[in-house]
Write a structure and sequence with these properties.
37% of the residues lie in helices and 28% in strands. By secondary structure, it is α/β, with parallel strands linked by helices. The strands form five sheets. Strands 12, 13, 14, 15, 18 and 19 form a six-stranded mixed sheet that branches. A five-stranded mixed sheet has the order 3-2-1-8-11. The radius of gyration is 20 Å and the shape is globular.
């Protein structure tokens, strides 16, 4: 019987998942991919959405209390998203995890691969705590249980390395550079910008880290600029986040449709450089050289210019067509590889 694998990237803005049965070619083309808002709150704190056909909130139970997960933060009356390093221990995170399990098309997940920010992924106690929460049987609905047999936790950006290796598996030159060279992976997420340095596939801990100057600050600055110019209220921020998630080129501000990308670019130009300045000072790269620079995550395109400036001699810069889901895809590929190795043993 085929094994069911899930790669699940629970972020501070989006929950991204890739799930499916192990395929012979170790790809993910036939797997189910989903991207959902990560908002979660008790039902009593959520705005009614009976007339909103786009609302995809998922009812879950957290410690016996009815919650909605995968809900737009704008639909929560008192949005108290956890933008801190204790996120994985919160009820919001657990609600998103349970909602993600409901997306699985199997009641048994043989291997679930997920990640932690780099600064936490180096702490074995935090890894064990997350595994303990995720493994086992979960009552995701009144008449449905999902069992997670095995959980693997990795530093979040390292999954993009696996995703990149998959893309270039048939490119002999790039495959050799990936195997033998030094790679820096940058993952600008909503709350934190994480980076890892890998030498021949192994993580150099001293040259990996986390900065909190990430997309949340970029979005805040862009929303403030739009509000100032168009006389719009505080709803611009949630409208901007929603437009980015849905791939809409414009948002509605005070009755006017506004193309928001120039505002994001202007905000990112400053904030990304602050984040990468910390990255540069913290890194202990040999000669500060990278053979490969990989950018993944929701903020990748807004950090790319600053990242190229940080490594001007790097000849190989890798990005992804679907950068938002690249980490989850890498998790899924890792899970497939682990299953295949187990079967071959």
């Amino acid at each position: 019987m085929s094994s069911y694998v899930m790669g699940f990237d629970i972020g501070y803005s989006n929950a991204k998942g890739v799930a499916g049965y192990v395929a012979k070619d170790l790809g993910f083309a036939q797997a189910k991919t989903f991207v959902r808002p990560v908002g979660a709150a008790p039902v009593a704190d959520c705005i009614d959405a009976d007339n909103d056909l786009m609302d995809q909130r998922v009812p879950v139970s957290v410690d016996g209390e009815p919650w909605y997960a995968f809900i737009e933060p704008a639909m929560i009356m008192r949005d108290k998203r956890e933008l801190n390093y204790d996120y994985v221990t919160t009820k919001q995170y657990r609600a998103a995890f349970l909602a993600g399990l409901m997306e699985a098309e199997s009641d048994t997940i043989d291997v679930l691969v997920t990640g932690l920010p780099v600064s936490q992924a180096m702490d074995e106690s935090k890894i064990k705590e997350l595994i303990s929460m995720m493994e086992g049987e979960h009552q995701v609905a009144a008449k449905r249980k999902v069992t997670v047999k095995k959980v693997v936790v990795r530093p979040q950006p390292s999954a993009a390395y696996i995703r990149m290796a998959y893309d270039y598996a048939k490119d002999e030159k790039m495959s050799r550079i990936i195997r033998e060279g030094q790679t820096v992976v940058l993952d600008p997420g909503f709350f934190s910008a994480d980076w890892v340095t890998l030498k021949q596939g192994g993580i150099i801990k001293e040259s990996s880290g986390t900065s909190i100057r990430a997309m949340a600050r970029v979005i805040d600055a862009a929303a403030e600029a739009i509000s100032r110019e168009y006389g719009a209220g505080g709803s611009v921020r949630s409208a901007l986040e929603r437009a980015m998630r849905n791939g809409d080129p414009e948002l509605l501000a005070n009755g006017t449709f506004v193309e928001y990308k120039p505002y994001l670019n202007a905000a990112a130009e400053k904030i990304s450089r602050y984040a990468l300045a910390q990255m540069k000072s913290d890194m202990a790269l040999q000669d500060n050289v990278a053979d490969l620079l990989v950018l993944a995550g929701g903020g990748a395109e807004f950090y790319e210019e600053a990242a190229r400036e940080l490594f001007p001699e790097c000849r190989h810069v890798v990005t992804f067509d679907q950068s938002v889901t690249a980490i989850a895809e890498g998790y899924f590929l890792l899970g497939q590889g682990l299953v295949s190795q187990a079967k071959a043993a």
